[in-house]
Each structure stands twice: as structure tokens, then as C-alpha cells.
């Protein structure tokens, strides 16, 4: 990978660099509720059944679509359509907005654990969608995901 590739425009990244940009927070794997009457989007603590709540990684990333057919494949083009759907701390969203990565991002800190120490990941506070019915997701809304 190129030195400081994360400072390049997203469309200039090769597939390996694109994947490496992910900060590993796990927030994109949280289920969201979109309220039809207001258009408001609310994140919940209810995570995809494939999210490992400790590592904040997908437990079946290469073949996740076999288990979760509607899992979003994030691409530069898709990012333009759903950037509002990603948390404000997301590396992809930050870079698409021309903002730098946070100091806790492993590409800056050199340490994959720094995101967890900074409290910027979902480590330890999610519940699996397997144990919560969709009707109860509102009980798990997160007020502030920043």
C-alpha cells in the first residue's frame, strides 16, 4: 500500500487500501431505524448477527452475503448515496467530507486497539439482533453515537 494512502481521494484508492481504511469501530454493523414520518435515522445498540462484539469485526466478512443478503458493500459510489447513514466518526465518511482521520485511527496511531481505548468503537455494548425482535429495536436507540 502507498504511504499515507488515507490522505488520497477515496476514488484513488485501490481495493486493498479501501479495505484498510476501515477503522474497525463496528458502528456500521448496528441496526438503524428510519422514522418514515420525520426521515430521522436512529442508531441502535442492536448489532448484525455476524458482528463480534469484542473485536468489532464481522465474523464472516468474506461470505457475509450468504448469511446477511442485504449487507451493504461500501464503495466510493455507494458512499455518495449513504454517507448520512454512516456515523460521523467513520473513516470513509470523514475522508469523503475532506476531513482527516482521528488520532485513534490505527493508520495514525499504529495500534488497532487505540480505537477501543478511545471509546470510539462498539466494543462491549451491543446486543445481537438474534436476541432482540425488530419490534423492540426502539428500546435500544443510542442518543449520541459520536
UniProtKB/TrEMBL annotation:
InterPro entries: Puta_zinc/iron-chelating_dom, UCP006173
Ranges in a coiled coil: none
Domain of life: Bacteria
Family the UniProt entry places it in: Belongs to the UPF0260 family.
HAMAP family in the cross-refs: UPF0260
NCBIfam families linked to this entry: PRK05170.1-5, PRK05170.2-5
Protein name per Swiss-Prot or TrEMBL: UPF0260 protein QWZ10_08705
Organism (species): Paracoccus cavernae
Amino acid at each position: 500500500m502507498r504511504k499515507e494512502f488515507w490522505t488520497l481521494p477515496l476514488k484513488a484508492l485501490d481495493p486493498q487500501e479501501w479495505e484498510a481504511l476501515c477503522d474497525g469501530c463496528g458502528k456500521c454493523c448496528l441496526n438503524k431505524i428510519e422514522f418514515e414520518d420525520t426521515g430521522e435515522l436512529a442508531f441502535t445498540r442492536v448489532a448484525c448477527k455476524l458482528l463480534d462484539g469484542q473485536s468489532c469485526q464481522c465474523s464472516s466478512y468474506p461470505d457475509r452475503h450468504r448469511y446477511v443478503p442485504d449487507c451493504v458493500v461500501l464503495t466510493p459510489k455507494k458512499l455518495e448515496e449513504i454517507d448520512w447513514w454512516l456515523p460521523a466518526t467513520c473513516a470513509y465518511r470523514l475522508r469523503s467530507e475532506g476531513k482527516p482521520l482521528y488520532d485513534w485511527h490505527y493508520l495514525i496511531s499504529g495500534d488497532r486497539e487505540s480505537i477501543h481505548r478511545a471509546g470510539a468503537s462498539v466494543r462491549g455494548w451491543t446486543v445481537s439482533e438474534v436476541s432482540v425482535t425488530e419490534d423492540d429495536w426502539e428500546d435500544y436507540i443510542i442518543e449520541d453515537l459520536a
